[in-house]
Design a protein that fits this description.
The chain contains no helices and 33 strands. It has a domain of 105 residues. By secondary structure, it is mainly beta.
């Protein structure tokens, strides 16, 4: 299984046409109505303001209410697909009035077609299911992007093709129209390519480095990438910029990185710098940072390993992972928390190469490293490294997938004796198992803005309030 490096909460197990093993639970009653731009298949709002749809008959989901706040029926055996836009869930209806399913599509894609087709986009309140806005568009794809300050947004694309004049080849150009969570138009982006928009900036590769250009005007920023044959890259799936041995989120908390000596041909150690997105001013660098205890140093006082990762930037602090020593395997890692204004090292502790962070960033769980044995996870506080618990020999290794918004429950998967991944939910503070034997695809997606969770089954889409 492909694993992210934990820079941002993963969306693995997101709703879209998922199959759920059924165990009787009471739920909402049925009821159909109409929505602006929709058809009679859209459920009506109940007297209390919440949409009423099919009853939920799946297993209880720890961390969430027993009954869904609202639901929508499936189209055939596929649940309506959704994009999470914060406190809004986006759904798409085709020309026949059927909800689009995201089954078989890449993560972050709500709709995809070879030719533009009429769609009605429904911006639904995540708490009630009420349609805040219904927007009629023609689209080839509908994809999740982010706007300034990381605000969720959606890109609706369409293409035009210029015919060949006999010498030049026919050329197809894709344009994206960006909409915010309220359905309001944000910008038009010509020559759009999937995965090249982040926080309202177009990510462009220029002379083996990266350039950030705001699509609504303003100064561009260049991600410094120095060193002989240095090639810094952007991983759109994880939102990270990667150099030779160093990694950092490309845009996070109003900052962007730079990389010095980012090449195997350099004798000076590789370094990460952080710059203000608003001004371009450098505010922090690993070159000036105090190396935490536990990191092995060479004869010149530099870390033996150049592997270093910026894990999180928030509240004026940066959380950094340093590899403890030079080795071919991931080995031990030391996490260090620095104050961006003063540069002071606030705390450090043993960490991990790959981590999953809770939405609030206060908790972290050890994650899988590809191609290496995984002993199981542990959970700790990022503020001081205090371990809440760690798995022991003889336990099924828990691969963490997602925290609930309040961090009280950790969902993950374990390998059973048949080598089949099964879902499990554990109490974050005590390691108590709260649910087991959940098929992996049944792990609920979480809206961090509201704490609501949602799953898709053969019966429909179900949205739950936090417990």
């Amino acid at each position: 299984m492909n694993r992210s490096i934990g820079i941002r909460p993963r969306a693995r197990g997101a709703v879209v046409g998922l199959s759920l093993s059924l165990a009787l639970l009471t739920g909402c009653g049925g009821g159909d109505g109409t929505a602006d731009g929709g058809t009679a298949s859209a459920p009506a709002a109940a007297a209390g303001g919440a949409v009423k749809g099919p009853a939920y008959r799946g297993p209880a989901l720890p961390g969430f209410a027993a009954r869904p706040a609202w639901s929508l029926p499936a189209e055939g055996t596929s649940a309506p697909g959704v994009l999470d836009l914060g406190s809004t869930l986006l759904l798409a209806k085709d020309g026949r009035g059927d909800y689009a399913s995201t089954g078989g599509l890449t993560e972050g894609t709500l709709y995809s077609s070879e030719e533009a087709a009429p769609l009605t986009l429904e911006f639904r309140d995540v708490k009630t299911g009420a349609v805040r806005k219904a927007l009629k568009v023609r689209a080839e794809t509908v994809e999740a992007v982010t706007w300034h300050d990381g605000a969720p947004a959606v890109a609706v694309t369409s293409s035009t093709t210029s015919a060949s004049d006999g010498l030049t080849e026919a050329r197809t150009t894709t344009t994206a129209t960006l909409y915010g969570a309220d359905g309001g138009q944000l910008a038009m982006v010509p020559s759009y390519e999937r995965g090249t928009l982040l926080d309202g900036y177009r990510v462009e590769k220029t002379d083996d480095t990266l350039r950030l250009t705001p699509v609504d005007g303003g100064p561009s920023r260049t991600v410094t990438c120095t060193g002989t044959a240095a090639r810094c890259t952007y991983d759109a799936e994880n939102g990270t910029a990667d150099a030779s041995s160093a990694h950092a989120p490309l845009i996070s908390g109003g900052y962007y990185p730079g990389f010095l000596n980012a090449s195997d041909f350099q004798s000076d150690p590789e370094q990460i710098t952080l710059h203000e997105l608003a001004t371009g001013e450098q505010v922090w660098s690993t070159a000036d940072a105090k190396i935490p205890e536990g990191v092995a140093l060479d004869d010149e006082g530099h870390p033996e390993s150049e592997s270093v990762r910026v894990l999180r930037i928030a509240d004026g602090k940066v959380l950094v992972g340093w590899k403890a020593a030079s080795s071919l395997s991931s080995g031990n890692w030391i996490h260090a928390l620095y104050d961006l204004k003063s540069g002071a090292l606030l705390t450090s502790y043993e960490g991990a190469a790959e981590v999953l962070l809770a939405p609030s960033g206060d908790l972290a769980a050890r994650d899988v490293v590809q191609f290496e044995d995984f002993p199981g996870t542990s959970v700790w506080r990022t503020s001081d490294g205090k371990r809440l618990w760690e798995q022991q020999d003889g336990e099924h290794a828990l691969d963490p997938v997602r925290f609930t918004a309040d961090g009280s429950v950790l969902y993950g998967v374990t390998d059973d004796e048949s080598a089949t991944d099964t879902g499990i939910a554990v109490d974050t503070r005590t390691k108590k198992v709260l649910a087991k034997n959940l098929p992996e695809e049944n792990i609920p997606s979480v809206d961090p803005a509201t704490g609501y969770g949602y799953v898709g089954t053969e019966a429909g889409l179900f949205v739950f309030a936090p417990a």
